[in-house]
UniProtKB/TrEMBL annotation:
It comes from Cricetulus griseus. GO terms for cellular component: plasma membrane. The chain crosses the membrane at residues 26-48, 60-86, 98-120, 140-158, 197-225, 237-260, 272-292. The keyword Zinc does not apply. This is Olfactory receptor. Residues 41-290 form the G-protein coupled receptors family 1 profile domain. The lineage of its organism: Eukaryota, Metazoa, Chordata, Craniata, Vertebrata.
């Protein structure tokens, strides 16, 4: 990094909702409750998936990865945001901003790929049931999940380094409640074309491509389900698909709005509300939509909880 860049900006001010004190007082208990539910719900999913042998399947392996992602993603910014909601000092160091930006990008990007992988897993389970154990082996599960984590981390580190190397010329007030990369780029006084190009390529690879794979998987699943003679079987499969598609729709629609819309000179409060929506609400709802309504997870949770009490 250029020395002038480091000396000119040693910390950033996250303006966030500071112009709306009433909104801050409303958001603190609301976001605190949602963050607590996110931690408890996703931790419970990971614990039950590990402790109950019946859930040692590809579906719950990927679900455990999704829960870990949701915990990591919200933890990159929610604790600091809660502190800033109650404090008049809303600063973050230059290094802290870079780390927050990188981790948020990495976990968010990984979730995009993981949702597509989960759709592919459901396609194999429903459309290729006899070959499913061979096609979706444990090694393939580890490879798909591990590759997603590593590739998205590498992508996010690259994007963060390029963005944070730009000169800021003393501009240090970020009109956002996190070190969101688009908000930081608005402070740069240099050429952002390289960073914009990387973000555009990343947006294309992580938005339309996985979403197309998800839609294709579910079109094939739907065609298979319609050939199932049992009404009960069709109902169960449709319920699973609708739950997954509901989360996909919420997750992708908000991200597409944030990253594919035309850039504006000034950050708007609506942008931050949408960020809270996909960054806090979706991870909170994922355990409920994916698992807590699932009979296998409920039975496994009761078994684990019952064994804990029996040991006491």
């Amino acid at each position: 990094m250029e020395p002038s860049n480091r000396t000119a900006v040693s910390e950033f001010i996250l303006k966030g909702f500071s112009g709306y004190p009433a909104l801050e007082h409303l958001l603190f208990p609301l976001c605190s409750a949602m963050y607590l539910v996110t931690l408890l719900g996703n931790t419970a999913i990971v614990a039950v998936s590990m402790l109950d042998a019946r859930l040692h399947t590809p579906m719950y392996f990927f679900l455990g990865n999704l829960s870990i992602l949701d915990i990591c993603y919200t933890s990159t910014f929610v604790p600091l945001m809660l502190v800033h909601l109650l404090s008049s000092q809303k600063t973050i160091s230059f290094t802290g901003c870079a780390i927050q930006m990188c981790l948020s990008l990495s976990t968010g990007s990984t979730e995009c790929l993981l949702l597509a992988i989960m759709a592919y897993d459901r396609y194999l389970a429903i459309c290729q049931p006899l070959r499913y154990p061979v096609l979706m082996s444990h090694r393939l599960c580890l490879t798909l999940a591990g590759t997603s984590w590593v590739l998205c981390l590498f992508k996010s580190v690259t994007e963060t380094v390029i963005a944070m190397r730009l000169p800021f010329c003393g501009h240090h007030v970020i009109r956002h409640f996190t070190c969101e990369i688009l908000a930081v780029l608005k402070l740069a006084c240099g050429d952002t074309s390289v960073s914009d190009a990387f973000l555009l390529v990343g947006a294309i690879l992580l938005l339309p491509v996985p979403l197309t794979l998800i839609c294709l998987s579910y079109m094939l699943i739907l065609a298979t389900i319609l050939r199932v003679p049992s009404a009960t079987g069709r109902r169960k499969a449709f319920s699973t698909c609708s739950a997954h598609l509901a989360v996909v729709l919420l997750f992708y629609s908000t991200i597409i709005f944030m990253y594919m819309k035309p850039k504006s000179k000034e950050a708007r409060i609506s942008d931050q509300v949408f960020t809270v929506l996909y960054a806090v609400v979706t991870p909170m709802l994922n355990p409920i939509i994916y698992s807590l309504r699932n009979k296998e997870v409920k039975e496994a949770a009761r078994k684990v909880w019952g064994s804990r009490w029996a040991c006491r």
